[in-house]
Design goal:
By secondary structure, the protein is α/β, with parallel strands linked by helices. 45% of the residues lie in helices and 15% in strands. The two termini are 16 Å apart.
Length: 268
């Protein structure tokens, strides 16, 4: 199935060759999101997770920006800011995007094509892997507008780059350029703008042709909060799922024969 038409809620969605590509497209407000766009993004992530033809989820923006977070143009007049309960519901919807990217079983890749600011920065950080255009940047914008990273950035960033460097980024609101992100190990690659999507798709394709159970179970096992004993217990369960999976046997036979495994999924 393929659906590459941008809906009125600012989300374009397409499934092709085992990749679900979700594109943020609200150019009039530089890829900020409102409630409708946020709901649509969560819906499309759920669609990708449920689709058996999807092996990797790719998140990007259209044009010259990735995502600039929530729309601040009418921030003080928004319905969700009238009391703590309604604001909590808004934050829940933002956090649910991050939860799906972080903890959903399928690997996620952010193709950061331009500024990723505030919650948009945290969407990119919540993906398993990132590729950035050379002119793009990440910015934990919250302190600049008198807020905290309420959707998870102060939880995610220290786990990716360490507490000290994360505090520098979070407390100053400074930009993390593509070159900085590469030095920090935040991105797989920083490439010229016109090579971004090709590079991101190649990375997605490299992952999607591997045994899916092994890929998904490996993602689950990467958890820095576990003790080693807890890891070993989880690894035993996940490894047994792999051992009994037909794709494991196909992959072992292919390695022995010096060829690519014949797995039943789309290939380039």
């Amino acid at each position: 199935m393929a659906d590459d038409e941008t809906r009125s809620d600012g989300i374009a969605y397409e499934v092709s060759e085992g990749r679900a590509e979700i594109t943020l497209n609200r150019p009039a407000t530089y890829k900020t999101f409102d409630g409708d766009m946020l709901a649509a993004l969560n819906e499309r992530l759920l669609d990708a997770r449920a689709d058996d033809d999807v092996y990797v989820i790719l998140l990007t923006g259209r044009g010259d920006g990735f995502c600039s977070g929530t729309d601040v143009s009418n921030m003080d007049g928004r319905e969700d800011r009238k009391n703590a309960a309604t604001y909590g519901a808004h934050l829940w919807a933002v956090r649910y995007v991050n939860r799906q990217l972080l903890f959903g079983e399928k690997p996620t890749i952010a193709a950061v094509n331009g500024p990723a600011v505030g919650a948009g920065c945290d969407f990119a950080l919540s993906c398993d892997l990132r590729v950035m255009a050379e002119d793009a940047f990440l910015r934990e914008q919250f302190v600049n507008v008198g807020l905290v990273p309420g959707d998870g950035g102060a939880w995610t960033l220290p786990r990716l780059i360490g507490e000290s460097k994360a505090k520098e980024c979070l407390l100053t609101g400074r930009d993390i350029t593509a070159a900085d992100a590469e030095d920090l190990g935040l991105v797989v690659d920083a490439v010229p703008d016109d090579e971004l999507m090709r590079t991101a798709r190649e990375l997605a394709d490299e992952i999607r042709v591997k045994p899916a159970t092994a890929v998904r179970n490996t993602k689950v096992l990467v958890d820095t909060t576990r003790s080693f004993a807890e890891y070993c217990t989880a690894a035993h369960e996940k490894q047994w799922e792999c051992v009994t999976d037909p794709e494991h046997r196909a992959a072992v036979e292919a390695v022995g024969d010096g060829r690519r495994p014949e797995l039943s999924r789309p290939r380039s």
